Structures are given as structure tokens and as C-alpha cells.
Amino acid sequence: MATLADFTYTVIKQITDVLQSTATGGTATTIVDTAQLTQVAEHWGKGTVWILSGAHAGKVVVVSSYVPNTLTFPTLTTTVGNPRYGVAGAEFPWVELVKAVNQALSEEGVYVLDDDTSLTGDGTTLEFTLPAGVYKIKEVWIKDSLPSPLDRHPSHHWGQLNGKLIFDNNCAPWDNYVIEIIHEIRHPEAGVYSDVIDDEIDLDWLKWKSIENLMLWAIREYGNNPQKQYAQFLQNARDMLLNKRPLRNISVRIQTA
């Protein structure tokens, strides 16, 4: 599974220059690199830093200020040491990167599978009101309420109608057996760098869809500047999306309590 940090780093490298290097020093609020951070003051101001190794590997921070050799950011509570890192300028801010990913994840047809185990059979009831949030059922399984992986089987005698799960006559779930409902849900919104993108999502599709969203934002924000090639990036993304689908051909189920 890719984290939001991993995924956005892949996206940003596709659309703009990213300086990747190894720090020569640092604190809980700075990365120091006397070899590569030689640009003029504020060149990286309001940019985004991906920490790629060390104690804070996998974290993303926004640059609050920059002077030659030093990136400053909100405290990480402990020193960063000498990590590998990547830094991008403020042209595509972290907040817009995250927004572009979430816009893609909210597209129609983008879903992951969840399972609900809150209903229990009694041997006679055929009609059950679906739990809140359960709408598009894909599969129904019946399993012993006691931990017994061998005593679990699919049910093929059910239907979904008007917010209810309805079993065929003489097919009521057994007494005290759990009704496991596999159903579609929207992918949870990603908010922080450690949030995970579900394996059911095709990451190549998500990358190009996120880039499409970013370029639409950039054209609105900055105008269609030919030197920046936003329109070209937009067309490239749309070309890449032509034969791609949001979901991979796998089934990963998220077990809920």
C-alpha cells in the first residue's frame, strides 16, 4: 500500500523539478545541506519537503522559510539527523497536491470494499435492515460467531431491496451465525502524509488523474502560461488516462469491528 507521502512524491516528480539530496545536518525544525541547498533566499519558501530516510522517513513538511543551506519547517519534536530528502518549490503547494488526490479518489466509479459484521442470524428471520453506510452489496457470507475460519461459507440466496438484505425462503442464516456483508464504499479521504491509499486503487490511474486535477488548478491559479506547459501536462495526463481504469483487478477487504 502506498502512503499519501509516497504517492505525492511520485506525482510531484512527474510535473516539476525536485531537488533530492542528503542532508549534511539538521535539527527538529531544519534540514541543512551545504552541498545542494545553494539557491537564493526563499527559493524553497512555502515549498514541500519529503523526508526519505532516517527517524522521520515518510513524513512531509511544508517549508516555513529558507536561506541558503537551510530549510526551516514546523517542529518534528526530535532531530532529523542527516536524512535523504526531496524538496519542491511552492508552485504546487502540499495542500493542492492533497486536494488533487482526493478529487481523484472521489470520482464516480472509484470505490474500495469494506465488510460489515454487525448482523446476526436467528434461524428464522429472512429480512434484515441494512446497517448505516451499507448500500452496494457485493457478497454475503455466513460464519460462526466463534473464531472458526473453517466454518464460513458464501450465501448465494439473498437480494438487496429498499435498504434491506432479504434471504430466500428456507435460507435464513443460522442462529447466532454472523452475516458478513461485503460492500462498496467510497475511498476514505486522505488528509495527512501517513494516510494509506488502498491497494484496490490503480496507482498509475490515480497519478495521471491527480496530475490532470493539478493542471486544471494551475491554469485557474496562474493562467495558461506556455512556458510552464500546464496545457501540455494536462493533455499528456488525459492521453495517459484513455486506457486506464481506477481499480485494479484484485479484491482487498477492510475488516471492521
Kindly describe this structure.
This protein is 22% helix and 30% strand. By secondary structure, it is of the alpha+beta class. Among the domains are: 17-90, Elongation Factor Tu (Ef-tu), domain 3 (Beta Barrel); 112-185. The strands form five sheets. The protein has a five-stranded mixed sheet, with no helix packed on it. A four-stranded antiparallel sheet has the order 2-9-5-6, covered by helices on one side. It has a four-stranded antiparallel sheet with strand order 3-4-8-7, with no helix packed on it.
Secondary-structure blueprint:
Elements lengths: L1 E2 H12 L3 E4 L2 E2 L3 E3 L15 E4 L8 E3 L2 E3 L2 E3 L11 E5 L5 H12 L6 E9 L6 E3 L6 E9 L7 E4 L2 E4 L2 E4 L9 E9 L10 E2 L5 H20 L7 H12 L11 E3 L2
Parallel strand pairs: 10-18
Antiparallel strand pairs: 1-17, 2-9, 3-4, 4-8, 5-6, 5-9, 7-8, 10-16, 11-15, 12-13, 12-16, 14-15
Helix pairs in contact: 1-3, 2-3, 3-4
Highest-level CATH class of the domain at 17-90:
Mainly Beta
User: If classified by CATH, what would the architecture of the domain at 17-90 be?
Assistant: Beta Barrel
Output the helix-strand order.
Answer: EHEEEEEEEEHEEEEEEEEHHE
- CATH topology type of the domain at 17-90: Elongation Factor Tu (Ef-tu), domain 3
The dominant shape is elongated
Number of E-type strands: 18
Distance between the termini: 21 Å
Judged by helices, strands and strand pairing, the structural class is: alpha+beta
Overall mean pLDDT stands at 92
Helix amount? 10-25%
Strand content: 25-35%
The biggest beta sheet reads: 5 strands, mixed
Low-confidence stretches: 250-257
Number of H- or I-type helical stretches = 4
Q: Radius of gyration from the CA trace?
A: 24 Å
Strand order of the largest sheet: 13-12-16-10-18
